[in-house]
Structure formats: C-alpha cells, structure tokens
C-alpha cells in the first residue's frame, strides 16, 4: 500500500483552481489541467513511503512487477501498470483528437523513431506504443463532443449557414454511403479549399445570429462552436465540431471513448481512467502539434452516438463501470455507515482516489486516512476495507 502524489499537467486549457481544491493544494495561479495517478514514464506519481522516499510509482513497480501487479497482469500486459487514472478539469475546449489502436500506435511510434523525432519533442505524436481507450466519470457537469452525427443530422445543423466551405461540406454529406459521406465531409472541413479559411469567421457570425434569434437547429452544438471560436478564432475545428455529437454528463455519469473515436472535452471536472498511454493525434483547436492527415488515417468515421456506460451494482455501496477493453475498469465505492466497513476487492493492482467525505483505509494494523483528493496504490493480494462516510473511485484491471 503506497500513498501517491500525482504528477500535475499545466496545460493552458485547465482550471487554475478545480484540481488544487480537489487534492488539497493551494492554487498558484497556473492552469492545472490534469493530475496523473499512475506509472506512465511521461508522468509517474511519486510514492509516499518510508522505504521509498524519493521514488516514482514506476520505479517501485519495477522492483517487483510480479509481486506488485500479480503474475496474471504481468503475463497479459508486461511488467508495467496497464492503466492510468487522472483528474481532468478543462475550462476551455481541448483539441479535436483521436487515440490510436495498438497496431496504429506501434506503427506510429516506429515511424517517428526512424524519422529521428525526439521522444519529448513538441512535434512528437506517438510517445509510446500503447493504445489509449479511455473512460470519463463526471464529478461535475461535463461537456464534450464525441463521435460523428449521421449525415442527415449533420446536414440539418449546417443548413442555413451561408459560406462556400459549408455548402461544399453539405454536398459531400448528401452523397455516398454514410461513413463515406462523413469521411469526405470531415476531410474537406479540415483540409479542403485552403483559400476559404476566411469562411470560418463568416460562419461563426451566422451562428451567433441564429443563436440570438433562437432559430438554431441545435442550441447546444452552436454554443459549443462559439466557445471553441472564442478560444481558437479562425480554426477549422470550429466547423468540424458541428459534425460531432455534443454530450452532457451529469455528476455520476460515465462515457467511454474507444480508439479511433474523434472527440474533444469542453468543460467540467471528472475522473478519467485509460490504458497507460499518452498518444494523442490532433487535428485542430489546439496550440499543440497538429497532424490532421494522420488523424484522418486512423479515425473511425462510422456515425454513432456517444458511448454512455451504465454501472453494474456489484453489491451494496459498490458500482462498477465496465469498459469493453481488458486494460481497466472503474468502480465507485460509497461508504454511508461508519460502523459498516466496505471491502476493497478486486485482484491485481488498484489505485484508490477519494472524491468525497472523510474515510479510513484499514489493512491489518495499518490505518490510512483518505480525505478528498488522497490516493493510494494497492498491490496484488492487498484487500483492505474502508470506513467512514464518503466516496472513492477504484481503478483496476478486469
């Protein structure tokens, strides 16, 4: 059992206060977009333990992978923690992005290695060889875009916006099979007719007008497009957002984003669990490295609604969100009676993160207080109980 200090990510889209408040740190004015609880080499948590006063979780796991992760996990995933748990707190839209599959990540990583792109370079896309499916659990109302609309609905959203870039996009949506039409339209919005970049500002002005007159076919979609336009004026991702499904997660709801699914987080606070990877292929609405052509090579263009996950009620106080991948699952554990401890079950490595209340983690003679924002790594075979009043999330391997 090791207490964890997260690795913080100060991306400019993050809230300066939300994550510091969650983990009990004083805000210093910088944006804090993410807090990483895990062992990814690009941002491993530090452990708080008398035997390992200055080591990262990745270094600790390397001392005894089979003992800490379990032989089954090592046989399936190798000697590294297969998942990464995060807190995320966007106050402005993230990049329009896609995560690769295992095969795509391996090929992309080799390609950039052979090209001599440094591992930490700003223009590096593939930072490891792993895929990155992910699940988001909302702690506060969370706004996002995820997956493509049907061509018919996309045409409804675009109709009435007068600009050659939009008119040509509508033409592409109206012809061909569904996925083919979406691919053609999406590619044109991102890369076609480079002399029409000025159309973005013209369309944004029209979106403002139809919102003001309440004639918009989707108030939600138009509001998100305007938020993106304020942060990234002239970016074609503003128009691309109209092709995507807007989604609102209420506190306690969860969404799964598979490899290949185009998405962008817009605002909110949530817990994110994913395969341990930092591979992100971006096509717009960002100041980071953009490679729209690479994104188009791996994106899944089949129209589909966002994948909302319903929890399975495993037992009293325990709800488990299962994703259709082998790398991770997420349980939400509620402790309502101080006299009735709740077992932290599940095999293999697990990370616990307290999200509400005051709790105690008890294992043998050891008692660890878990206030809001505190996190603990459990190794294979450790089965503590939690007491008190509050909630925590448990990330683990199915």
Q: What is the number of strand segments? A: 22
Largest sheet: 10 strands, antiparallel
Gap from first CA to last CA:
20 Å
Any idea what the radius of gyration is? Answer: 22 Å
| CATH C-level label of the largest domain | Mainly Beta
Task: Label the CATH architecture of the largest domain.
Answer: Sandwich
Global outline: globular
- The proportion of residues forming helix, as a percent range, comes to 25-40%
Assess the beta-strand content as a share of residues.
25-35%
Quaternary status of these chains? single chain
Mean pLDDT: 94
Number of domains: 3
Instruction: List low-confidence stretches.
Output: none
CATH domain topology of the largest domain:
Jelly Rolls
CATH superfamily of the largest domain: Jelly Rolls
Query: Count of helical segments?
Result: 12
Main structural class: alpha+beta
Report on this model:
The structure is a single chain. This protein has 398 residues and is an alpha+beta fold. It folds into three domains: 2-64 and 78-145 and 249-288, Jelly Rolls (Sandwich), CATH 2.60.120; 148-242, no CATH class; 312-396, Jelly Rolls (Sandwich). It has helices at residues 18-23, 57-63, 65-69, 71-77, 102-114, 151-158, 164-174, 178-191, 199-212, 219-231, 237-240, 292-298, and strands at residues 2-5, 7-9, 34-37, 46-48, 83-88, 96-98, 134-138, 142-148, 244-249, 254-257, 263-267, 270-275, 281-284, 307-309, 312-315, 318-322, 329-335, 342-343, 350-363, 366-371, 375-378, 385-396. Strands 1, 4, 15, 16, 17, 18, 19, 20, 21 and 22 form a ten-stranded antiparallel beta sheet that branches. Helix 6 runs antiparallel to helix 7 and helix 7 (164-174) runs antiparallel to helix 8. The protein is globular, with a radius of gyration of 22 Å.
